[in-house]
Automatic annotation (TrEMBL):
Acidic residues composition-biased segments: 706-738
One GO CC annotation: exocyst
Region spans: Disordered: 705-747
Keyword Iron attached: no
Alphabetic keyword roster: Exocytosis, Transport
InterPro entries: Cullin_repeat-like_dom_sf (IPR016159), Exo84 (IPR033961)
Official protein name in the record: Exocyst component Exo84 C-terminal domain-containing protein
Record-linked PANTHER family: EXOCYST COMPLEX COMPONENT 8, EXOCYST COMPLEX COMPONENT EXO84C
Length: 769
């Protein structure tokens, strides 16, 4: 009973299938499906292989059949020509038979009839013209073109029926037809792709002998053009491996091919006797040159790379040289090549200088092709100590990229594109100068400078040493590094110059006249930076931070000169600031004495120029409400002479400063004269101002009020010195380059090395304080 109860509780326990059985059933089914799929895939693979094999076999069979069809076509053409020639023979034979039959019918006598019956065609069989035509047909059928040519040539010379303008007879017509067949065979021989030069020349000579010279000449040029194309196609895949030199190989292939073709044409066709042939050679050569230019453009590196510039330079150099070699052969291709190639060279130059602008001004741009180990890096890195390293890096990049461009140029590129290269260097240097000006203090968008919005100056040059370092780098590039690079490219001589044994590379203007004008514009570009620096320096000296003018006309209207006859306080401060700047310049611009003198002379000149153009300054003198004193005019003239003596004493070119000072003095004298003050009676002599200015320099340098008379530092000066300001007019007979004995190296060094503690000039204060 218990078992029956258990069966009732679990009535379906026996119908459950074990999991292991299920797994085995599914596994067996999966394996069967996989095996079936594998078998089907193997069958499919075999079918594909069989189909590929069948296709390959059928393709080979089709190729073989096509070749046989071509051969059969040639044989049919030959057979057709042979049948045609035989048909012509049969027609000539029938015509002869008919003529003989007519003659036989008209002739009297049985004996003659009997003879004719025995041999009805005796004359036809022995007719030499028929024999000749039959012989020609046989030679042409056997493709014996040389023998056929000789036989036909001999027949044409000997047979009167074939000469001149004789009416077209059946014999002449048959002869011309065979001549056309011979021409066709010669043309087919000459047009074979694999024909050698000797076979070609032989076939062309045959065409010339049968009067087909133009066709032969065209085939000759076509042969050399095809041969050149095959050689170039074989060479072009290797252009990428030699991007700098592949134009040299291409130009050699093209121009050597032109030379050979021209020589063969002259030898075979006598171009001198027949200008038509020489004109065709020239036209063909011009097309080949156009093909060369197109190949160089298509296979060169990107136009902005230095390798593209080098490739263009080599191509122009080699091609122009090859053109000169071809000129004795009557081929003048130089002008055509330059006209075709000039736009490409100009494009490459323009894009390379655009790349140069990116490398110089975008400090994040890098160019791995530039050599950082150049001497330029060492020379320009000296300025990095006194200035921002980023700005120095900009100068180094400028010289490296310009040197890289110049190194790619060849002699003939310089000859034909030198002016264009110099113009682009000038434009690049001008932008570089604008970039440096942007780093100087006081720069703003209202200064009239070109915008350089794409480039950001990382730091301004605030201190005098940083600003002088920028000037030194720009001047070194202009005066030393660029001329040295151009001397190598333009193959000019190096001239020694400069003071204290300094050797600088100078451009020989007589050897390259365009360089003289270029150097002048380069100096003008540098003058923008120099003048901007001088103007900002002078403005910072003249105006206080509050914007008040230190150099005020009240100095000459209210103050009374002391008995020491010293210059006014602003000009004493000017002397002090110039001395400070000279000391800094001696350290930063070491070895650049020329630049130091130019800068300091320009600074003194800028002060006087500003004074002469400051209308507010002169308005105070012209205002009748302000009383004028002769002492004020005397002090102003003394200040001007003092400024001139500063330049003379330090060894600067002082004549320009003297001229500007004379303008200021003359204007002041005129104003005072109009206000009723007589300069002749109220002012000391001209020499007094010069001596007083020199004495003031002595006192400021020595720091002693009891300094001896000026003659103590004038021991080497001549008694009569005309290089001073003459009142009221300036002495124009003096030499602008002359300086006094104070304009020596010792005096300049003493000026630059004098300690500021030795100067007893009063502290510089605003005029209104």
């Amino acid at each position: 009973m218990e078992s029956s109860e258990e069966d009732d509780e679990y009535p379906f326990i026996e119908s459950i299938t074990p999991q292991s059985k299920i797994d085995s059933v599914h596994q067996s089914l999966t394996e069967k499906v996989i095996r079936k799929l594998c078998c089907e895939l193997m069958d499919l693979k075999d079918a594909v292989e069989n189909m590929c094999g069948d296709m390959r076999t059928k393709y080979l069979a089709l190729f073989r059949i096509s070749e046989e069809a071509v051969e059969m076509e040639h044989e049919l053409v030959e057979l057709r020509k042979h049948i045609s020639s035989q048909g012509i023979l049969v027609q000539d034979l029938m015509a002869g038979v008919c003529r003989e039959m007519d003659d036989w019918n008209r002739s009297p006598g049985d004996v003659h009839d009997a003879e004719v019956e025995e041999d009805p065609l005796p004359n036809e069989v022995t007719d030499p013209k028929s024999e000749f035509l039959e012989k020609i047909d046989l030679l042409l059928a056997e493709h014996k073109v040389d023998e056929a040519l000789e036989v036909m040539d001999a027949e044409e010379r000997s047979c009167p029926d074939l000469k001149g303008s004789v009416e077209m007879s059946s014999y002449k017509s048959a002869f011309m037809e065979r001549k056309a067949v011979l021409e066709d065979q010669l043309l087919r021989i000459a047009k074979q792709p694999s024909i050698c030069v000797a076979e070609l020349k032989h076939a062309l000579v045959g065409l010339i002998r049968i009067g087909k010279g133009p066709s032969a000449h065209q085939l000759l040029l076509k042969f050399y053009a095809t041969s050149l194309r095959r050689r170039i196609e074989a060479f072009l895949p290797s252009c990428s491996t030699c991007p700098n030199t592949f134009p040299a190989t291409l130009s050699k292939l093209v121009f050597s091919n032109i030379s050979v073709a021209a020589k063969e044409s002259a030898a075979m066709f006598g171009d001198d006797d027949n200008p038509a042939y020489s004109n065709k050679v020239v036209q063909w050569a011009e097309r080949e040159v156009e093909y060369l230019v197109r190949l160089v453009k298509e296979n060169a590196s990107p136009s902005e790379t230095s390798s593209a510039l080098r490739a263009a330079s080599i191509c122009l150099q080699d091609c122009v040289n090859y053109c000169k070699v071809l000129e004795p052969q009557g081929l003048f291709l130089s002008k055509l090549f330059l006209v075709l190639f000039r736009p490409y060279v100009e494009e490459v130059l323009e894009l390379n200088f655009r790349r140069a602008r990116r490398v110089i001004f975008d400090l994040t741009e890098t160019d791995e092709g530039l050599e950082s180990s150049s001497d330029f890096v060492i020379i320009l890195s000296e300025f990095a100590i006194a200035s921002d390293t980023m700005m120095t890096d900009c100068s180094i990049r400028f010289m490296l990229i310009v040197q890289d461009i110049l190194e790619q140029l060849t002699h003939l590129v310089v000859l034909h594109f030198g002016e264009s290269v110099l113009t682009r260097i000038l434009q690049l240097y001008d932008k570089y100068i604008d970039f440096l000006i942007k780093a100087l203090p006081g720069h703003s968008d209202e200064d009239g400078l070109p915008e350089l919005q794409d480039h950001t100056v990382l730091a301004r040059a605030e201190t005098d040493s940083e600003q002088l370092a920028l000037l030194g780098a720009a001047f070194t590039i202009l005066d030393e590094l660029l001329p040295r690079s151009l001397v190598k490219v333009w193959k000019l001589q190096i001239e020694n110059g400069g003071g204290e044994g300094e050797s600088s590379a100078a451009l020989n203007s007589s050897a390259a006249p365009e360089l003289k004008e270029w150097k002048r514009h380069m100096v003008q570009a540098f003058d923008k930076l120099r003048n901007y620096f001088c103007l900002q320096f002078v403005l910072s000296f003249i105006y206080s931070r509050e914007g008040l003018t230190r150099l005020d006309a009240l100095i000459y209207l209210t103050e009374t000169p002391d008995d020491l006859h010293l210059p006014s306080l602003p000009f004493q401060a000017l002397f002090s600031k110039l001395q400070q700047l000279a000391i800094i310049a001696g350290d930063v611009l070491l070895g650049k004495e020329k630049l130091q003198k130019i800068l300091l002379a320009r600074l003194t000149e800028t002060v006087i120029i500003w004074l002469s153009n400051e209308q507010e300054f002169w308005s105070a003198f012209e205002d009748e409400s302000n009383p004028l004193q002769p002492s004020g005019l005397q002090q102003l003239i003394l200040d001007m002479n003092f400024t001139v003596e500063i330049a003379r004493f330090a060894g600067y070119p002082f004549k320009v400063v003297q001229n500007h000072a004379s303008v200021v003095i003359n204007r002041a004298i005129n104003i005072f004269s109009e206000r009723g003050i007589n300069p002749q009676s109220s002012l000391p002599k001209t020499e007094w101002f010069t001596e007083a200015a020199k004495s003031a320099i002595n006192r400021l340098l020595m720091g002693s009020e009891d300094a001896s008379e000026p003659e103590e530092y004038e021991c080497e000066e001549e008694e009569e010195d005309d290089d001073h300001i003459v009142l009221p007019e300036m002495d124009e007979d003096s030499d602008s380059e002359d300086t006094s004995s104070l304009s020596t190296v010792e005096s300049f060094e003493s000026f630059a090395s004098a300690s500021m503690a030795d100067l007893e000039s009063p502290s510089f204060t605003d005029s209104e304080s």
